[in-house]
Amino acid sequence: MVAKISTGSNLFGTLLYNNQKVENDVAKILHSNKVMQDKNGEHNMFLCNQSFAPFLAANQKTENPIVHISINPHPDDVLADEQFQEIADEYMQKMGFGEQPYLVFKHEDLERKHIHIVTVNVDEAGHKIDDYNNFHRSKKITTELEEKYKLHPADKLNYSEEVPRLKKVDYETGNVKKQISNNVKALIQSYRFSSLNEYKALLSLYNIGVEEVSGEARNKPYRGLVYSALDSEGNKVGSPIKSSSIARSVGHAALAKRVASSVKLIKEKQLTGHTKEVLDMAIKNYSNRPSFEKELLQNGVSVLFRQNEEGRIYGATFIDHETRTVLNGSKIGKDYSANVFHNLFQTSVEDEPLRTNIETENRQEILLEMPIEKPEDAPEKQDEKGMYTSENTGRQQSEDNASMSMSPSLLEQHGTDYEAEAFARKKEAEAKRRKRRERRM
Asked: Has domain 2-148 been given CATH number 3.30.930.30?
C-alpha cells in the first residue's frame, strides 16, 4: 500500500478536482468525518467548504494548510468499500488527523481502485498539527495496515502513483500518441467546457488539436473524434489519432456527455464569477494586449484570441485554471465579446512585443504543468485493417452511432460564436486561394 501526501493552499481546487470525478461518475464520496451534509444526507461543495472554514480561519499563518492524501493498495488487492473506509479512518487516526474534518473519495476511473482524502493540518484552536517525519510515519502505518488486512506489500520500487505534471506535446521527442493520450485523458475529466471549440482551445495550450468527424460505414452513421499533435504555430504535424485508439473516455460520446454536464454546472455553480472578476480588473487597468494577457496569467487565466488575416479579433476564449473552466467571452457576457477586446487593443500603445515577455511565458508554463492524476493507458490491438482500436472500441462506436442519430453535432451545440468564426475561416481560406492563384500567374 502506497500513501502519497501533498499539501497546498487551495481548498476549493482540491475539492473541485475530486468532485469533478464524482460528477463524471468515476468516483464517489465514500465517507466523511466532521463534514456537514444537507437534509438528504448528501454532501455538497458549499457545506464541505463551510466545514473546513473554522479550522482555516483559526490559523491563517500556515502557508499550506490543505492536505491531500491518496492511498493506493497493491494492484492485486481488491477491497470492499467498508475496508477502504476502515483503512482511511485508521490511517487518519494514527497520522494525527482523527479529530479533523476530512472527506474520503473512492476513485474508480482506473482498474486499480484507490482513495483520496482531503483534510487540513490546523485544528480548531489554530494549532498546526505536527507533520515532522511524516513520510516515515506514513510508511510505518501503511505497513501495519497491510499486515492487519492481509494485503500485498507495495512500495514505490514496484508500484507508484506519482502525480505527473502535464506538459505540451513535443512532436520531435517521439511517442506522440502517449503524450497526447496522457494529456487528453486528464484534461477532459478535469476541466469544464460547454462546446467543442472551448475543448479545442484548452487542448491547444498543450499543442493538441481535435476534430469532429462523421460519415457512414456499412449503412450506419458514425461520428467520432480525431486528435493531432500541433507545432508552435498551431499547425498539425504527424498522423491523426482516432479517439477509439486512445480510450473510450476521450471519445465523441464521452465528450458530448462532458459538454452537457458542464453547461449545467457552469450555470448552477456560477463558475463565470472568478473569470469575470479577473477580466474586469485587467480591462480596467490595461488596454495593451501583452500587458493584458500578462495580468490574466498572473491571476490564473489563459486567453486565446483568434484573428483573421487583417488582424481583427473574432474570437476570445478564456481558460480559468483556478476553477478549471473554459469560457468563450460571449458566454461570460456581452462586455467580454471578441469585438470588445478588438476595440480595446486598437486604442492601446504597443509598449512591448506580443508573447515575448519572459515572466509571462514562465507563468504560462507553471499553469500548464499542473499536477493531475495520471490515467492508465488503454490496452490496444490492431484490427484486420491495421487500425488501432481499444477493447472498448465497439461499445464506443455504438454509443457514437447513437449520439449521431439522437443529437446534433458538437459544433452545433451551445455554439454562439461559431457562425462568426466559420465566416472568418471562410474568408481566410478564400484569401489563401487568391494568393496561390496569384503566385501561379
From this structure: yes
